[in-house]
Specification:
Number of domains: 2
Low-confidence stretches: 199-217
Mean pLDDT: 79
Helix content: 40-55%
Number of strands: 0
Order of helices and strands: HHHHHHHHHHH
C-alpha cells in the first residue's frame, strides 16, 4: 500500500468529513483503530488540522464513495503528486573549486599527522576527495609527494572551523568509546586536542619521498 503523507492529519479529516468506520480510516492511514477512536473523541491530535486526501491527490472520490457504501471495503491510496517534493534531498559529493583541489593532499597529510582517529571516509567527505588519494598520501605514492606538507583544511579554505571541530570531536568521541570497550584507559590530562589547537605545520620538513609521476588527483 502506498504510504500516505500526514497520516494523523488525514485521519482527522476523514473522521470529521466522512462516515467511514474507525477500522477503515485506521487501515488507510496506517494507524491503530484505538488511535482513530481517540481522534474522534477529541483525545488525540486535538491541535492537528485535517488534511483532505482528495485535494492532495492521495485518494479519489470513487474510492471514498465505495468505502462509505460498504464498511468492509478498504480504500487504496494513490501516490500523491506532492510526494516527490517532500522527499529528503540526498546530499551529493562535496564540491571543491578547481583552484583548491591541488591543496587537498596537504589537508590529507595534516589529518594523517594530527588526527589519526579521523577515518578515511570522514576525511573524504569533508575534503571532497577519495580513499584512493588518501592512501596515496599515506603511503607516499602520490604523484606530488615531494611537495606535500601538512596544512589544516581551514587555512586552505577547504572547510570551515565549525565543520572541522565537529568532525574531530565526533572522531574523538568514537575513539574514546572504542577504547573503553577494549579496556584502554587514557592517561589523565591526555585528551585529543581540538582541531583549532593543533596549528599549521608549514615549517615542517616534508615527510614524503618523491616518486615517479602517476595519476594526478
Amino acid at each position: 500500500m502506498t504510504q500516505i503523507l500526514m497520516p494523523k492529519a488525514t485521519a482527522v479529516w476523514l473522521v470529521d468529513n466522512t462516515s467511514l468506520t474507525f477500522d477503515q480510516i485506521a487501515e488507510f492511514c496506517e494507524l491503530h483503530p484505538l488511535e482513530v477512536k481517540g481522534i474522534a473523541d477529541g483525545e488525540v491530535a486535538r491541535d492537528i488540522r485535517g488534511a483532505d486526501p482528495i485535494a492532495n491527490g492521495q485518494l479519489n472520490r470513487e474510492e471514498l464513495d465505495a468505502a462509505e457504501a460498504n464498511s468492509a471495503y478498504r480504500m487504496k491510496a494513490q501516490k500523491s503528486r506532492h510526494a516527490e517534493l517532500l522527499k529528503p534531498v540526498k546530499k551529493g559529493p562535496r564540491y571543491t573549486p578547481v583552484s583548491r583541489r591541488q591543496d587537498r593532499p596537504d589537508a590529507i597529510a595534516w589529518f594523517l599527522r594530527n588526527h589519526p582517529e579521523v577515518t578515511d571516509s570522514q576525511i573524504a567527505r569533508l575534503l571532497g576527495t577519495t580513499k584512493a588519494t588518501i592512501d596515496q598520501v599515506r603511503n607516499r605514492q602520490h604523484w606530488n609527494s615531494a611537495n606535500i606538507k601538512p596544512v589544516d583544511p581551514v587555512t586552505l579554505g577547504l572547510s570551515t572551523q565549525l565543520e572541522l571541530d565537529a568532525l574531530v570531536r565526533k572522531a574523538a568521541d568514537k575513539k574514546a568509546r572504542d577504547d573503553a570497550k577494549k579496556g584502554i584507559v587514557q592517561p589523565e590530562g591526555e585528551t585529543l586536542r581540538p582541531a583549532s589547537e593543533t596549528g599549521v605545520f608549514e615549517d615542517a620538513e616534508p615527510a614524503y619521498a618523491e616518486v615517479d609521476d602517476g595519476d594526478e588527483d
